[in-house]
Amino acid sequence: MALKIVISHKTKYKYDRPVSLSPHIFRLRPAPHSRTPIEAYSIKITPENQFFNWQQDPFGNYMARLIFPEKTTELTIDVEIIADLKTINPFDFFVEEYAEEYPFEYKEETKKELLPYLEITDKGKLLQDFLKTLDYTPRKTIYFLIDINRKIYEYLNYNIRMDPGVQSCEETLNIKSGSCRDYAWLFVQTLRHLGFGARFVSGYLVQLKSDEKSLDGPSGPEEDFTDLHAWAEVYLPGAGWIGFDATSGLLAGEGHIPLACTPTFESAAPVTGMSDVCETEFFFENSVKRIFESPRVTKPYTEEQWKAIYKLGFKVEKQLEKGDVRLTMGGEPTFVSIDDMESPEWNTDADGPHKRELAKNLSARLYDEFAKGGVLHQAQGKWYPGEPLPRWSIELCWRKDGRNIWHNKKLLSLFADNPTVPENADILFLETLTKHLGITDTTIVPTYEDAFYFMWEEGKLPIDVDPTKDDGALLVKNKLKEILKDGKSKAVGYVLPLNNSIGTWYTSDWTFRRNHLFLIPGNSPIGLRLPLDSLIRKPEHGEFPQFVPDNFSVKGRLPSYKKTAATRYENVVNNGAPINNSYFIRTALCSEVRDGKLYLFLPPMDSAEIFLDLIASIEATAKKLNIPVILEGYDPPKDHRLESMKITPDPGVIEINVHPAKNWEELTHNTLTLYKLAKQSRLGTEKFMLDGKHTGTGGGNHVTLGGISPADSPLLRKPSLLRSLLTFWQHHPGLSYLFSGAFIGATSQAPRIDEARMENLYELEIAFSQIPKDGDVPFWLTDRLFRHLLTDLTGNTHRAEFCIDKLYSPDSSSGRLGILELRAFDMPPHPQMSLMQNLLVRTLVAWFWKKPYEHDLVRWGTELHDKFLIEHYVREDIKDIVEQLNRAGYKFQEDWFNPFFEFRFPLHGMVQINNVHLELRAAIEPWNVLGEEMTGGGTARYVDSSVERIQVKVNHFIEERFVLTCNGVKVQLNSTGVKGEYVAGVRYKAWNPHSSLHPTIDVDTPLVFDIVDTWNKRSIGGCTYYVAHPGGRSYDSYPINSYEAESRRINRFWEFGHTQGSIQETESIIQGGESTSKVEKQESSKKFSYKELPINFEFPYTLDLRKK
Asked: Pfam families given for it (predicted)?
């Protein structure tokens, strides 16, 4: 993030008569050691008749000394500073080993150098008493200093003092209040008493309004703010002078710009001087203004840009309505914890206790926002190979027509005032429920744990295995202990065989060979452990008929079943329950008390009508008994008259399956609301690598396109739309890579159709030719044409950039939903960026619906992973897209995509070398899957993460004069078409993991870039890029926020580090097909030479340092 500011400081002294001024000292120029880069500085002082000299005091601070030869009636000082507010991590330093722990003593030599900063001037009783209150427990020196800083911040009350000077420590401690000067001086004297070298600092404090409100503590100023300020610095061996601001209790950061750092506050005063005796009026004004802001994840767009994007969304909506497209858009955004970035559940594992807690928190918030009057349902989620148990799923389900499914949310356990229920609630609930369903309660079956099974399992253990220490044996032992504690005859829960046909509920008797229903051993809900194979195989009354729902049938309005349940209850109470023995039922509703809560396991249901009927009866029962419930079991049936939203776990993330939006306004509301509620649930979208690289959550943000009902889907009604989208994406690789996650390529989660098998394009063109031009198109045709082409290398239909698994699958009705899933979209960090992505897709659908995009496919070949993996050419591709959209009547702007470029291709650094401007940006590197290897857990296929890529770009570069080298290898630059502007990619081995594609090649880092002037025969400058902290700090935790991540990125780029010495070029040497230009250092035995590798015609845009 680049953020440049202007600080304006105006001071005016107005005298009531002409006065003579003594020589004045102005300490209003940023000190030489300011860590915040100062790009420009100006000071203007009147009267203009003056003698002006810049000086430096004994401590290296800048001082302006002015002599005014004539009398004046006013003195004005105008200061303007332009600063680059780069994020600074105040903790990024080393401390010498002997000073790491407090207490310590400086070395004698250091003590002599720090003598002025060790002088104690305040020795009063109150200060001595204050020193006694400090905690002197030995600990890390930095923690000890932080505690003192915080102690002063908490001990004193801040006030603004306009009178000059600094209070003594005694006065400050006596009144327990002071200004920033008083806080700083108390801190300085406290540290000196403890043996630290400390100095007083005056300077500017810049505080900018936060883009987003903080969830924890204050959010900072409401407006951008600057003022003169004071703080202290303490000398730590190895680290140097470290700033502490006791006024805020924090360390000094990029907003602290020092002007003067001295042993005493008198010599740090911003202005020193005298005038004749007179009356003086004093005026001052401080302001800060942002003059440049690159897009950032917390504020990707200006208000004007966002208004234009939002307005265009409605214009596209009118086009979609006019064309009767009937498009709906949903998605699968993913979120991570903002508090825990280290645990396996937020990195690799799919499940975890913290993840479940946050998911329940979010589901409650989403219910109140989207699903009022709906139900909250917990179900078994996906079950992947290698995972011991299925994942969970939380679903919110509500009616589209606005009518209630569930009326009183307090009867849902998540919202109940007291979710704990009596022990017999399970049987009591089912007995009452049967009355609301109009059936007998005689078929209710108690369920039991199979104690004999666990005794048998324990009996099988070897005699030398201790059941209390072996994990597998301990599970068996604990389960057996639990059964014996509760008693073998105690029911775990109850089962009600249940099904519905044409609005009537049926039940039947279940009998077993062992006379009782013994559950399949395990810890899952009883509904997942029913011994269904033990039920009678050939029942007397025949099987209950099963129906496969047709998602394409025309369906009427859904009724309400609240009165129906009440009527059935009255009939049963008054007339008794009817006996319906027409069918044998193999599905059941289960009730179980777990952890003091009542769980109801729902059976599978064929239609929305049956589901609504059952839920109405369950709520009526819950209301009558005043028992809150948790619904689990089978999902509600798919029906376009019902809306649903799911919260599910995925490796490292929580995934939200967002319900489809019918229009732009609804889509905007859904997206903005979801991000807001996720943040309130302490879920975020930011994730960082150890080196500070900003990534998406890792779970993606898949976009789904469909219709209100499957039959309305524009993809099924017009297959040429899918052809147009496929062709346009294939023509523009920038769409695949700008919005993608960290992993791309043939073995990624969503490979392009031309990344895996090149013959796919030939076959795809044949499929395109089979799309009818006119007339009605059968729905199955789209699936049949593209199913075997839109896959990954292994034929997996789900792992594709364009996934049609749910379009019109022949496998099941759940796969015939008319949905196209775009799976290459990564999770954008801001909702406006997500909406921008969606707007782009909506615009393309509107355009291609009206005018199909039918052109020949492009054989990109190796250009895909060469040209289109660096920022410049992706930007050129996006520029071409914007031009096409503008010609089609959709007024997109190129700078709307800048946030994505800053996120996907972050700037590492730039340097000005004479007239040449050199810039380094991150580029994309496909991390392909390696071959199979044996591990402790079985067979694994690692990803080759050893190689990275960077883009280097130069401006005002004279190709005939200059040569750009990287680590002694000439970079073959490619002209961008702009005079003097060239660009190239550099591929290098950054790491040396235990498993990589080329384990014998050593790492190439750090990367040293040189601008070699062949006319003057020397390197005129350069820069150095590190992949890890250049000082050797080995980070063992991820950055906690974007500021720390940015500081980690910044400290890996040095604006210096060119190769030294003059050079002399000798003749080129051809060795093994390589052309090498030797460049030797004159008047020295050392040699500096650069290699010139022949251009690789397969990858002409990239220099691969592994070939050097």
From this structure: Bact_transglu_N, DUF2126, Transglut_core
